[in-house]
Design goal:
3-stranded antiparallel beta sheet; elongated; alpha/beta; 44% helix; 13 strands; 12 helices; 386 residues; single chain
């Protein structure tokens, strides 16, 4: 066979055998290394072990490439004789084509291993979780349905938005919720799970307590009993209300709570002007509340009462203005409370080793990109490409 014929001629079986041998070497190396590391090196792991199953892709790549080579070989052999093909495909190298696929296939395998992120080198760290216990006492009396802050929003809606914003600001603290009107009810015990707190917050409505009124003193006492004596943490109570307290025991309760080291902050809901209280049924406004003389009952913010409660509780007072729920004053006061170490978590970290697979994969793809199937002038001097 002449040299010119050799320029095109290359047995498909040789290319397939070469690929299969390299495939066996690749899998033997990967499986052996993985088994050894898993069994003998406790500091080794894969961060994303499920990703490694993507290596099955290389089997499909090999199958498609082999089928394509066999089909191409048969199609070309029907097209012309070998002597003619050598002239037509004088600039083509079968070996270059095989080498390009092998480089591409190895690169894909290494990229998948890199995506699984092998990790080595276990480091143990200890992180202290610090925080305080916070009980939020929310007024759900009928007066909280008044719409005197922002049109289309009642006081309770805005108060719940304020609590949601407050929860978003917490870091490591435990939070609980007490709702109150003429009586008080523990809606949520203290929890570090802020997502659960938000779910409980959504379900709060004015129909949860039948007895009407605004008994802030009772809410403070229930909040105090919600704190665990076993947890040696600093504590705070945040009262969100329009301040229309009809029981006149809130200030005494606030003083008593502060004597036990609990800080009480208050948030005022409503305007200084009297507004009617809407009657809501099935989510629709059906009228306004009236007294026995058929006179319209008005409600307004009792700011003086809430300020006095905050002062007695060594806390701070803020007034909600519109939907711009400025709780900075309350949050700053809470942040001044010394955080208590609640628990210490020990966890392990690992050093990423994906770069040892990613870099070779990029290099192989680069070589695959710069190697062409077309023959060059120096190819006749290189045995591999003859």
């Amino acid at each position: 066979m002449s040299v010119s014929k050799k320029k095109y001629y290359s047995k498909t079986s040789n290319s397939i055998i070469t690929l299969l041998v390299l495939e066996i070497i690749f899998w033997a190396a990967i499986i052996s290394a993985y088994q050894y590391l898993i069994l003998n090196v406790s500091e080794f792991r894969l961060e994303h072990p499920k990703v490694i199953w993507l290596l099955i892709i290389v089997f499909f790549l090999n199958f498609i490439w082999i089928k394509n080579r066999i089909w191409k070989k048969r199609a070309v052999s029907k097209f012309a004789k070998l002597s003619t093909l050598s002239k037509i495909f004088n600039g083509f190298s079968n070996n270059r084509s095989t080498l390009k696929f092998i480089l591409f296939r190895l690169a894909i395998g290494l990229l998948i291993i890199a995506a699984a992120n092998p990790q080595y080198g276990e480091n143990e760290r200890t992180v202290a979780s610090k925080g305080i216990d916070i009980m939020v006492a929310l007024d759900i009396s009928k007066s909280m349905m008044a719409e005197d802050i922002v049109e289309g929003y009642n006081r309770l809606d805005i108060a719940k938005m304020a609590i949601g914003k407050l929860i978003n600001e917490l870091r490591g603290d435990h939070v609980g919720i007490v709702v109150f009107a003429g009586g008080a009810y523990k809606q949520l015990p203290l929890t570090p799970d802020y997502q659960v707190a938000k779910l409980f917050l959504k379900s709060i409505g004015t129909d949860m307590i039948s007895s009407q009124g605004t008994d802030i003193g009772n809410a403070i006492e229930l909040s105090m009993s919600s704190f665990s004596e076993d947890r040696k943490t600093n504590k705070a109570i945040i009262i969100i209300s329009d301040g229309e307290d009809h029981e006149e025991m809130a200030i005494d309760a606030a003083k008593k709570a502060n004597e036990e080291g609990v800080v009480i902050c208050t948030v005022g809901m409503g305007s200084d002007k009297g507004v009617p209280i809407p009657i809501i049924r099935n989510g629709k406004k059906i009228g306004i509340k009236k007294d026995q003389d058929e006179s319209t009952v008005l409600t307004k913010l009792n700011e003086e009462n809430l300020i006095a409660i905050a002062q007695s509780g060594n806390g701070s007072y803020t007034k909600t203005r519109g939907l711009n729920l400025n709780l900075r004053k309350i949050i700053d006061r809470i942040n001044k409370i010394e955080k208590t170490t609640l628990k210490k978590d020990r966890y392990s970290t690992y050093d990423d080793q994906f770069q040892w697979f990613l870099l070779p994969a990029i290099i192989l793809l680069l070589f695959d990109f710069i190697i062409f199937e077309k023959r060059g002038k120096i190819d006749d001097q290189i045995v591999l490409f003859k």
